[in-house]
Structure formats: C-alpha cells, structure tokens
Amino acid sequence: MSDLHVVIAGGGLGGLALAQGLRRAGIGVAVYEKDPTPHFRNQGYRIRINPDGIDALRAVLSPEAFEVFAATAGNPGSRRDTFDHHLQLRHGQELPLVESLPGGGHLAVNRMTLRQILLSGLDDAVHYGARLTHYTTARSGTVTVHFADGSSATGDVLVGADGVNSATRQQYLPRARVVDAGLRLLYGKVPFATDEARALVPPQLLGLWTTVVGPDRRFVGLAPVQYREPMHQVSARLAPDIALSDDSDYLTCVFGARREQFPCGDDELFAMTGASLRALAMSLLEGWDPRVVEIVSRQNPATIFPVSVRTSVPIAAWETTSVTLLGDAIHAMSPANGVGANTALRDAQVLTGHLTQAAAGRPLLEALHAYEQQMLEYGFDAVRESAARGHNLIGQNPLPAAPLGFGR
Questions:
Q1: What single string gives the DSSP state of each residue in 315-364?
Q2: Exposure pattern of 106-119 as b/e (b: 16+ CB <10 Å)?
Q3: What would the pLDDT profile of 275-316 be if each residue is shown by its tens digit?
Q4: Confidence check: pLDDT of 406 > 90
Q5: Do the beta carbons of residue 219 and residue 335 sit within 8 Å?
Q6: What number of H helices and E strands is found in the chain?
Q7: Per-residue model confidence (pLDDT) at position 401
Q8: Contacts of 360 by beta carbon, 8 Å cutoff, 6+ apart
C-alpha cells in the first residue's frame, strides 16, 4: 500500500471510478458523498457508454466487475438518427464500431446498475452524509476537507468530483462559470418488458439514441435499455459479491424544449408531480405523429423528473496545487452528444494513471499537472462539441466565449 492518500469529494460515477482505480493501484482513498444514502435521489436512467467509457471501466474495475458491467449492458447498435415529428428521417448516423470492445463500443447501461458495480468493494471507503463546506491546505501541501457536521478528513490530494454544483470548484476556481443552456428536460421511463410495449415503438426508433424534433425545436429523445439476463443471474454467474438490484427492460423517454416554450416558470415546473409533467409534455406534442404521442403517454409518472441543462464555460489552465477537479465539477456539458459520463470515466482512468506514477516516486504536483493538461483538452473539447450539437439540433444557447488566458 502506498503512503499517498487521496480524498474524493463526491460519490458519483466519476468519483467512484477513480476510487476503484486507486484501490486497485494500492493507493489509499476515501470518498465523501453529501447524499445520506446511495439511493437518496434520482440521478437518471439510461447512460450511453462509448469506447472511451468502456476503456476507462476496463482499466479501473477488477476483471470480474468489468465482466458484470459488460453482461448487464444492452447492445442497441450504433445508430443515432434524427426524425421530424411526422417520423420522416432527417439525418441518419452510423457511429464507427470498435470490434474489440463489447457491443462494438456502444453500450446502453442503467445508471443505478453501473453505480452498484462501481460501489462494489468500497464499503469501507465511501462515507455518506458528508457535505463539503470548505477545505484548507497546510504548508506541507496536505489538504483538510471540512464537512457540514463539523467533521473533517485530510489527504495528500483532494479531488473535487462533486458535480455541476461543486463546492470544491467554487472555492478553488471561483470565477469558473457554469451557465444555463436554455433547455429544460423531462426525463421518464416507459416500461418495455412486454410484447405489447415493444410493439408500440417503431423499430427505427430503437437505436443507440433517437431524437424526434418538432416545431419550435421541441423534441423527444428515445433510447432502450434491454437486459440479456436477470441481474441476479449475472451476479451469481460472474461475481456473487456484487449485489445488483433487479430491473426490467425500459425505454428512456425524454421530452425537451427551450425554457420559454414551457407555460410556467422553473419554480412551478420543478414542483410538479410526475403525472403533471407528463400531461405538460403531452400538451406540447399537438400535431405530432400519434405513435410518438402514445409513447410519451405510456411514461410511468413515478419516474418523471425535470432537469435544467447547464454547461461549463471552458477556461485556461490554472496553477497546479494538491487540489484538482474531475467530471462535471470542471467540464459539465449538455447531454446532446451523450458523452458527459464517458468523459468523467476517462478522467478517472487518466488521473488514476498519473497518481499511480506519483505513488511510485514521481513528484505529486508534476503528476497532477500532467492530468490537468490532458483533462482540460479532451474535457473542454467535449463541452464545445456537445454545445454545438445541442445548438444546431435542439436550440441550446451558444456556448459563451471565455476570456483569453483566464485561469484562477
């Protein structure tokens, strides 16, 4: 075991992936998550995992856990098509296949399932109900993290993996901006386990991700999650120590529009019940192909929740210290390109590699600087590409320009 100890603020996918990678490398790690339990709030449903994400998970997970991940992922193919609201194809796209990767490099996973896999073996490392209020640094470079309950934790490195509202980022890079992208999304699930439910959806809408765009750039996004075997069978066959919640096939169904398209403000929107949100979406689909309207009408109201889309504004590099950032804490992005989770997983892989070098004797700040150089390039490239696709396809606000040379 290395003497290096890493404190991670935030137990989302990126933070847990980093913890897995560090634990495998023999580096001490502790994760502090503000939520009281891993099931405290709805964090979404289906996630697309692309080649970057698959490679990252292969690197940070044990071989057994990676096999569980691959076995619980759906293989929806590589089609990413856009239709108009009469279901006429506007743009067809076949993403390249990577034959050496599961699903050709294009997988659909259930977020909770992936989270349970990433939590496996970390029971002693993940601490819940720990809301970071601030951190302090010592002359030696160690960082002490302070929590709302008065407790604290000290490490050689603090990694802020605490999401788009990152308290770490707000203290460390106070001028870094996260802006409203102008879109509001209503996420929901359509049960998809019966023949009747599957017959409801035209086959051309069951690719990797399908966007149906209507008047005023209102849109419906569709993506299936279809399991190849029950979760308990996967665990029993591959890794009995990994406990997975059973789940049934479903269709992720997202209605979205610019915020001014909604007949109410955010306060009212975010206070609505699932049934009211579904009714609101239905009222904004007048004149659409009845098959799309029927799909939206089949959403389970208990699964529907609103999201305000936000995006980071790219910034220049800062002076490296023993505090760094990962995932949405530094490069939050529109979901328009479906790469946010993959970019966070890539961060975890890259940072694990550099911290492993530090544990072997490389100067710590040199290792962290190398991580930040890589992460800022591919991370903000992903932010820009997501913003551009979101703007062109569904009317997302253009990404604001960052002042030249801006850092801390």
A1: -------SEEE-THHHH---GGGS-HHHHHHHHHHHHHHHHHHHHTTS-H
A2: bbbbbbbbbbbbbb
A3: 999 999 999 999 999 999 999 999 999 999 999 999 999 999
A4: no
A5: no
A6: 13, 17
A7: 83
A8: none
The DSSP symbol for 397 reads: P
Helices 51-60 and 340-359: crossing angle in degrees, nearest 10, is: 40
Sign of CA dihedral 38, 43, 46, 48: negative
Interior angle at CA 81, CA 79 and CA 82, nearest 5 = 170
Alpha carbon of residue 241 to chain centroid: 25
CB neighbour burial string for 290-305, b if at least 16 within 10 angstroms, e if fewer? eebbebbbbbeeebbb
Place of tokens 């690719």: 207
- Do residues 21 and 346 lie in contact, with contact meaning Cβ atoms separated by under 8 Å? no
Residue for token pair 């306060």: 267
3-state helix, strand, coil in the chain (%, to 5): 40, 25, 40
The Cα 95–Cα 76 span in angstroms is: 12
The predicted pLDDT at position 39 comes to 74
Burial of 253 (0-12, 13-18, 19+ CB in 10 A): buried
Q: Are 69 and 98 in contact (CB under 8 A)?
A: no
CA distance 39 to 357: 34
Paired residues of 209 in beta bridges: 80
Among candidate residues 355, 359, 357, the one with its CA nearest the CA of residue 347? 355
pLDDT digits over 34-88, tens only? 998 877 666 679 999 999 999 999 999 999 999 999 999 999 999 999 999 999 9
Cα gap 408→62, rounded to integer Å: 37
The greatest distance separating any two alpha carbons of the chain, rounded to the nearest whole angstrom, comes to 65
